[in-house]
Design a protein that fits this description.
Length: 259
């Protein structure tokens, strides 16, 4: 007759629940996989599947019962780690959408906004378009697989029971601050082209005061904005690839224990 002690049962449950907590938190807060349009059952099923695949390579778990105070503390730690990793990758798409907002405002499309179900807020149409292009490009370069690979690697660099070091929180804040610079870099060609266009229109208005600037200015800035946006698309994928690699590097730095 097979006998199972309560200690063995606690270890088996902890072996599944502790990694699942980190994986589910990361998927829920990450881009693409954490989209609100994806059903919660799909996210949960994917998290369980990844947990079953990853668990044999994790190693020994802390001999802690899940219902104990120490077990609950470990679960909170895993939630913090997973959310921090997913949030770090989501900031990449935030930079791209911010670039779209800057470009849309300069093009005169600041009033053209639609409801964004992902962020639950109004978003300019250019920002939404760039966000969809970025999502498709992210899947094309296997960014979601690289993200899951970094998640699996995190169990080796930061085992279950270890807490993310304080430097990790500082790195998240610093990475979030650099997003503004990346957003400006992405939108810089459009901003520069429209700045030159506005200067030219200003000179034209001074040379011909009878010219109706509002009648010709908006179509010109709109056409030039879309033209520069089209010309800059071939350089968008390499930029996204570089952002993805830097985001993955920042994610792995979060889960490295100090030596």
């Amino acid at each position: 007759m097979i006998s199972i002690t309560s200690a063995q049962l606690d270890v088996w449950i902890a072996t599944l629940v502790f990694p699942l907590t980190r994986i589910l938190s990361m998927i829920a807060s990450s881009p693409i996989l954490g989209n609100k349009q994806i059903p919660a059952r799909v996210k949960l099923g994917l998290s369980v599947l990844i947990t079953i695949v990853v668990t044999p390579a994790i190693g020994e778990m802390p001999p802690v019962a899940i219902g104990s105070p120490q077990g609950l503390l470990i679960m909170v730690q895993q939630v913090i780690i997973g959310v921090a990793m997913g949030f770090t990758m989501r900031l990449i798409f935030t930079a791209i959408e911010m670039a779209g907002e800057l470009a849309g405002l300069q093009m005169g499309l600041g009033f053209a906004s639609f409801y964004d179900p992902v962020n639950a807020a109004q978003s300019p149409i250019v920002a939404q378009w760039l966000g969809m292009v970025a999502a498709l490009a992210f899947l094309a370069i296997n960014g979601h697989l690289l993200m899951l690979s970094a998640l699996a690697e995190s169990f080796k660099t930061l085992p279950i029971g270890g807490m993310m070091p304080g430097q990790g929180f500082h790195d998240v804040a610093r990475w979030g601050g650099s997003i503004f610079a990346y957003a400006l870099q992405i939108s810089l060609p459009i901003l520069a082209a429209l700045l030159i266009t506005n200067i030219a229109l200003g000179i034209l208005t001074r040379a011909a005061p009878q010219l109706n600037l509002f009648a010709i200015g908006f179509p010109i800035t709109l056409a030039i904005g879309f033209l520069v946006l089209l010309l800059s698309m071939p350089h968008f994928i390499p930029m996204l690839d570089r952002l993805t690699q830097e985001g993955l590097g920042a994610t792995l730095n979060l889960v490295k224990l100090p030596h």
